[in-house]
Design brief:
The complex is a heterotrimer.
Chain A lengths: L3 E12 L2 E12 L3 E5 L6 H9 L6 E6 L2 E2 L11 E3 L11 H11 L4 H14 L15 H14 L4 E5 L7 H18 L2 E6 L2 H7 L2 E6 L2 E6 L1 H6 L4 H6 L3 E8 L4 E4 L2 E6 L7 E7 L3 E6 L5 E8 L3 E8 L2 E8 L10 E6 L4 E5 L1
Parallel strand pairs in A: 3-8, 3-9, 6-7, 7-8
Antiparallel strand pairs in A: 1-2, 1-4, 4-5, 9-10, 11-12, 11-14, 12-13, 14-20, 15-19, 16-17, 16-19, 17-18
Chain B lengths: L7 H29 L13 H5 L3 H34 L3 H16 L2 H12 L4 H8 L13 H25 L3 H9 L4 H29 L3 H7 L6 H9 L5 H34 L1
Chain C lengths: L11 H29 L16 H11 L9 H32 L2 H16 L2 H14 L7 H24 L3 H9 L4 H30 L2 H6 L7 H9 L5 H24 L8
Classes of the chains: A alpha+beta, B mainly alpha, C mainly alpha.
Chain lengths: 345, 284, 280
């Protein structure tokens, strides 16, 4: 269906004794939007810098359209990059910034001017060409940095947490804008972020990294619905991670309740289950409930509860209603069978 | 290896021209050390510490004592003026006033020392400005002798070394947040208390650093004692010059120079250590 | 009430003492220069203060010194002036030229190396000038080197390196690696990135370094005092030889020109590094 554009083969990276990346394998399809997601220090920025050529992998290979680019100097790769600090050249105007890559490619003045104009139209800022970079707002800088990277018609479009400095509302708008630009240019894109909402919003393919290892690489909905391990379940949309057992009928027993979910593990084995807060519903009972509500807050469209059960604190989210349990109520818990992920412990 | 941090080879290539430029200086340092250990006075020949032994005379001892005394007094006076000047410089709002004050303070460090010596001679001489003013005020009857003695040298030292203290303190003062002062004030501290309990402790590393540089600078002064002290104020710099001409005692001059260098380095190292110790204390 | 290191109101004894000491400091700094300037306009031969009457006769004297080649003195003021300027210009170009790549290497290199190097290049600042003068003289004499103008240039370069390096380093501090990487990602070779991005952004610091080197070399007296020869001598040495017995008012007029040039250059440096770096 789609062809592989960038291949990362067994890439590892050590800084002295510290291992930043271990044996990373990844294929990126042409035109795809890939997000590298993980907590800080997981190696995601290092991986991006290896792709850009700013770091040399300790071992492993990079292939672009099948050609080995592992040792190619970064300035010969032709990848457009947007940096965390944006790195707009403060001594150049907006137009000079955008035209810089073209100037290096010896494009004629007319070509440069046309291309700058075209890009400024694309980012919907047609009148700022002659302004100094210092006169731009945060969102405008963002767009100019993106335009500068796209001006060279990059083979790969790399972004290192480009939106982290923006306030929440502007970030929302920029995410939509970024996705629109990426699709209209059809450029293969790798973006690094620690913000899982941002990653879910942008990515065709989500690569979750932790401790220098790829935990899961799959489309966002798949990562959300079926995380492959407790780390991914917890990092993406924060699930309740609870100890569980395999019952004698090979079903999942959770907090003393038989959920009816069948498991493949031998009866009696200890397991872990990840249950999202919206996959649990509460029912108020007079006695014999599974837990007691310790906290409840009405967030408007939904209500969030904390329930103490069997020594665990469970987070539950559900629609607000007049009969919602309140603090001190005994409740029984019901789990949505289709949305429980089970892991061997 | 990141490609944007320099490799060892590249870093060396980038630093090489500067190394070549500073090499004569390093060679000069080594040469002085070697000469001070020469057995002959006029050429480098054999090893001996005779040059150092020959310095153990009351005359050289007085010179060392005078040097330390003048440098110390000048440092104390400089510090008492530098801190207020730094406060004034950082609190000036207008950029013209700030620039005027900056130039006024910095000029003595940079300006041709001869010009400044002329200035002091015209100020302090028997018919100079100061004596004229004092006489017309009726405070003195005969002119005071301020030139070609320790007073004149001291004033010159204070003037030329003042900027060395003011500017490091200015950058330290800029680092003090006004909130610190406001907190102290809101707790009921008077201006003097704030100075003693908040400002000066925060400035301490900069103060120690500035004082040590001023001291080292003044201890090794040459032109000011030469021009304002005449032959009568034999600070070490002048004494060393006199060993070379008219005495042609090169190894002796080198040995005396080594003592001067060690003296200034000692002050700098001790003060650096002092700064480290006191900052660790305030952090802990 | 506004609180500050120098309170604007209700300062009481504190404000009084601080301002008094500051004024004392300003007087000590400025009076010699002011007196030299006033006396240069004196009409009299003597150095009594204040002058009985004012004139421009000593400025005329300076003009005559420059126009009439006077063969009575060993070296004319014009030769000294030219030597001074040539020395200062070479020192300025060489010192800044070597400090730019060094500052780059130190800013992008390891922290430990950087601290060590900064210390090494600060040494000439605390090294007694007399000893530098004597040491350079000893080397030049004992090796019988025919250095010409370089016998003054080489020590001056060592002397100005700390000032120039400090200016270049503080200019480098504000330039993030990402800016260079951005240029490289757009297709610039590492050297091209330095040329297109780093050097233009260092410009103010480089200029400040250039000017610093110029004024320090032009005004230097102590080392030159040991190194000068009959053929190679600078303006401060000429002034010294002229006033060694008594003060000559025409030298004061010349001094005023030097003061004016220095003030102008310092203001320029101050403008260049306004708010960013420290003067040294």
């Amino acid at each position: 269906m789609s062809e592989t554009h960038l291949t990362i083969e067994g890439v590892s990276k050590s800084f002295g004794d510290v291992r930043a990346l271990s044996n990373i394998d990844l294929k990126v399809d042409r035109g795809a939007f890939v997000c590298l997601l993980g907590p800080s220090g997981c190696g995601k920025t290092t991986l991006l810098r290896i792709i850009a050529g700013f770091e040399q992998a300790t071992s492993g290979k990079l292939l672009l359209d099948g050609a080995d680019i592992t040792d190619l100097a970064p300035h010969k790769r032709g990848f457009g990059m947007v940096f965390q600090s944006l790195a707009l050249f403060p001594h150049m105007s907006v137009a000079e910034n955008i035209a810089y890559g073209l100037k290096l490619r010896k494009a004629s003045r007319v070509e440069q001017k046309d291309r700058v104009e075209e890009l400024l139209n694309v980012i919907e800022l047609p009148h700022i060409a002659d302004r100094p970079v210092s006169a731009l707002s945060g969102g405008q800088r963002q767009r100019v940095a993106i335009a500068r990277a796209l001006a060279i018609q990059p083979k790969l479009f790399l972004l290192d947490e480009p939106l982290s400095a923006l306030d929440a509302k502007l970030r929302d708008n920029m995410q939509i804008e970024l996705r629109r630009l990426q699709q209209s240019f059809g450029v293969t894109t790798v973006l690094v972020t620690h913000d899982q909402t941002e990653a879910m919003m942008l990515a065709d393919e989500l690569v979750v990294l932790s401790d220098g290892v790829i935990q899961q690489a799959a489309p966002p909905s798949q990562v959300y619905q079926s995380p492959v391990n407790p780390f991914v379940a917890d990092f993406i949309g924060s699930a309740n991670i609870l100890p569980a057992v395999s019952t004698s009928q090979s079903t999942l027993g959770l907090l003393g309740v038989d959920t009816g979910v069948s498991v493949e593990h031998a009866p009696g084995s200890t397991l872990q289950a990840a249950v999202r807060s919206e996959a649990i519903s509460l029912r108020k009972v007079e006695s014999g409930g599974t837990g007691i509500v310790s906290f409840a807050r009405d967030l408007g469209p939904v209500t969030e509860w904390l329930v103490q059960a069997e020594g665990h604190e469970i987070r539950v989210r559900g629609a607000s209603s007049a009969v919602s349990p309140t603090v001190g109520d005994q409740v029984s818990l019901q789990f949505d069978q289709d949305r429980i992920s089970v892991f061997a412990s | 290896m990141s490609t944007t941090t320099l490799s060892k080879g590249q870093a060396l290539a980038f630093a090489a021209p500067a190394f070549i430029a500073i090499l004569p200086f390093l060679a000069a340092c080594v040469y002085i050390l070697r000469f001070s250990l020469s057995a002959e006075q006029g050429v480098i020949e054999g090893f001996s510490i005779r040059a150092y032994q020959d310095l153990m005379t009351p005359f050289f001892g007085r010179s060392v004592w005078l040097t330390l005394k003048l440098a110390f007094i000048a440092t104390v006076v400089v510090m008492f003026m530098a801190v207020p000047l730094a406060f004034l410089l950082t609190s000036l709002r207008g950029s013209f006033a700030r620039r005027l004050l900056t130039v006024t303070i910095l000029l003595p460090l940079i300006l041709n020392l001869l010009v400044q010596a002329y200035g002091w001679i015209l100020l302090l001489g028997p018919s100079g400005a100061l004596n004229t003013v004092l006489k017309s005020l009726g405070l003195i009857e005969r002119p005071l002798f301020l030139l070609f003695n320790e007073t004149g040298v001291l004033l010159g030292l204070i003037q030329t070394s003042l900027p060395l203290a003011v500017f490091p303190i200015v950058s330290a003062v800029r680092g003090i947040s006004n909130e610190h002062l406001e907190v102290a004030s809101s707790l009921g501290a008077s201006n003097w208390r704030i100075l003693r309990d908040v400002s000066l402790p925060l400035l301490r590393p900069a103060l120690v650093g500035a004082a040590s540089i001023v001291f080292a600078f003044n201890a090794s002064a040459f032109a000011i004692p030469l021009l304002l002290g005449g032959r009568r104020v034999q600070m070490m710099g002048v004494a060393i010059r006199d060993m070379i001409s008219p005495l042609f005692n090169w190894s002796g001059a080198a040995a005396a120079g080594m003592i001067l260098i060690l003296l200034t380095l000692f002050v700098l190292v001790v003060s650096a250590w002092l700064v480290r110790v006191t900052t660790v204390k305030t952090k802990g | 009430m506004r609180v500050g290191l120098l309170p604007t109101d209700r300062g009481g004894s504190y404000r009084f003492v601080i301002v008094l000491l500051a004024i004392l400091g300003i007087l000590v700094s400025a009076l010699p220069v002011v007196v030299v300037t006033i006396m240069s306009f004196s009409a009299a031969e003597t150095s009594g203060f204040p002058p009985d009457s004012y004139s421009l006769r000593w400025y005329g004297e300076v003009a005559r010194l420059f126009t009439n080649e006077d063969s009575s003195s060993a070296q004319s003021v014009v030769d000294s002036m030219v030597t001074s300027l040539v020395v200062a210009l070479i020192v300025m170009v060489v010192a800044t030229g070597v400090c730019i790549p060094l500052a780059y290497a130190l800013a992008r290199g390891q922290r430990r190396v950087r601290e060590g190097m900064e210390l090494l290049f600060t040494l000439p600042l605390v090294f007694p000038l007399v000893m530098l003068g004597i040491a350079f003289l000893l080397i030049a004499e004992s090796l019988a080197l025919e250095l010409g103008i370089w016998r003054i240039v080489i020590p001056h370069i060592a002397l100005v390196l700390p000032f120039v390096l400090r200016n270049c380093l503080s200019a480098m501090n504000g330039i993030s690696v990402e800016l260079e990487e951005a240029a490289i990602s757009l297709g610039a070779s590492p050297m091209r990135a330095i040329w297109d991005v780093v050097i233009p952004l260092m410009k103010a610091g480089i200029l400040a370094g250039l000017i610093f080197a110029l004024i320090i070399s032009f005004n230097e007296f102590t080392i030159t005092f040991f190194m000068y020869t009959i053929d190679v001598s600078t303006l401060p040495i000429w002034m010294y030889s002229r006033t060694v017995s008594s003060l000559d008012p025409s030298t004061l007029a010349l001094s005023v020109f030097i003061i004016a040039a220095d003030v102008l250059l310092i203001v320029l440096v101050d403008k260049l590094i306004a708010g960013k770096g420290n003067l040294f």
